[in-house]
Specification:
This protein has 14 helices and no strands. It is mainly alpha-helical and 393 residues long. It has one domain. The longest helix has 32 residues, at 295-326. Keywords: Signal.
Length: 393
């Protein structure tokens, strides 16, 4: 079944009622093509991530890892994920269409030469489809950070929607990454691109970095909420692959990781399968929340979630290191500012994970990201630190 086309058609039908044209997605006061800049800014070709090989030959699975292709050797019982194919819990999730939107925006903004103002306008319309990608960016929480204390909750909002409260987003910006950080990052880049202000490649790179960030925390978040909403396992899978199997036509974040580290891509997919295996072994009908799970069920989920988290961190690290190394590539000479904008954003995203492992390395990396003109030595040192700190998934 081609899950993507089912969901994409559904959302386009809905969106047709609310998006009569590309200007319908703009907030009051945002510029149209007849406002703002004088026209498209001349810009060089966008950079591709470096093609330097990623050495992960020393990486091996942990004793606690789920091994879908060797399930007799892992600590999991026989389950639906054995064999390495993701099996849906429910109907194809609408998150597939959101990652298809990510892919369409990539074609408009950073895959096919420097984007023009109309490209940003068209991309913004795709981003703002009803119940589409932008709607989930706006409310995304990063579960790597502590939850908002219950004493600060807005009683009119569901527990998992507390970041929709403005005060909570201001007071807890790390947890409320969507409204506090991602939304302004992406919206500002769209507005600048539509206005014809500055370097369009830089604006596109900031949007791409925002989408990678969103995908990273979305896969992680949906895997956890699968403990009480089983179909969220499907959303976790879809936010990573766009609705494909590991060896299929992956898009979005999965395509970026797969292109530069097939082994890391497989490790992320195995982590998603681990969470799906847990949900198969501990039915939501019998165990409707994490707290309802027996101790061994909680332990199994914790292992699966950690396996996925480690693999996702390595995936982000791969994206970061390949963009770092591209800074010295001859083909990147026309768009180094854009490439460096991506590095600075994703470097900040990965700082928490690196800091937990090696605070000194994290501090040194932040110093490199802060440079406006990094040298070849700076670039090589940053890649070395990333590989030393997060060598495997």
């Amino acid at each position: 079944m081609n899950c993507r086309h089912i969901i994409r058609t559904h959302l386009l039908v809905i969106a047709g009622l609310s998006l009569a044209g590309p200007l319908a997605c703009r907030a009051p006061g945002e510029p149209t093509d007849s406002e703002g800049g004088d026209g498209d800014v001349a810009a060089g070709e966008p950079c591709d991530p470096a093609s330097d090989p990623v050495d992960e030959a020393a990486c091996v699975a942990l004793a606690t890892d789920y091994l879908p292709m060797d399930s007799d050797e892992d600590p999991y019982g026989a389950c639906i994920s054995d064999g390495g194919v993701y099996e849906l819990v429910s109907d194809p999730p609408s998150s597939i269409a959101r990652i298809e939107a990510y892919d369409e925006i990539a074609d408009l903004l950073w895959r096919n030469g420097a984007p023009g103002r109309d490209d940003f306008t068209d991309a913004r319309a795709t981003y703002e489809l009803d119940q589409g990608l932008g709607s989930r960016v706006d409310r995304r929480e990063d579960l790597h950070y502590p939850a908002i204390p219950e004493s600060e909750w807005d009683p009119g909002l569901d527990p998992d929607k507390q970041c929709s409260d403005t005060d909570n987003a201001i007071n807890h910006p790390d947890r409320c990454a969507g409204p506090a950080k991602l939304r302004p990052l992406i919206n500002d880049a769209f507005i600048a691109g539509m206005s014809g202000e500055g370097d369009p490649n830089v604006h596109a790179a900031r949007i791409e970095a925002g989408f990678v960030w969103f995908s990273y925390i979305s896969v992680y978040k949906e895997a956890y909420t699968c403990t009480h909403t089983a179909k969220d396992c499907d959303s976790s899978w879809a936010y990573y692959t766009g609705g494909a199997q590991a060896d299929g036509d992956v898009i979005g974040f999965a395509e970026l990781v797969h292109d530069y580290s097939p082994s890391t891509h497989q490790r992320i997919f195995d982590g998603i399968l681990a969470v799906r295996c847990f949900r198969d072994l501990y039915s939501v009908d019998d165990y409707p929340t994490y707290d309802d799970l027996p101790a061994e069920g909680q332990e199994l989920f914790d292992m699966a979630w950690e396996q996925l988290d480690d693999a996702l961190a390595r995936g982000v690290a791969v994206a970061l290191r390949q963009h770092l190394l591209a800074q010295d590539d001859e083909q990147c000479s026309e768009a180094t500012d854009a490439n460096w904008a991506f590095v600075q954003i994703i470097g900040e995203v990965l700082d928490r994970e690196i800091r937990e492992r090696d605070a000194a390395a994290a501090d040194e990396l932040l110093g490199i990201y802060a440079l406006s003109q990094p040298t070849t030595q700076d670039i090589d040192r940053a890649a070395e630190l990333i590989d030393q700190t997060i060598p495997c998934g």
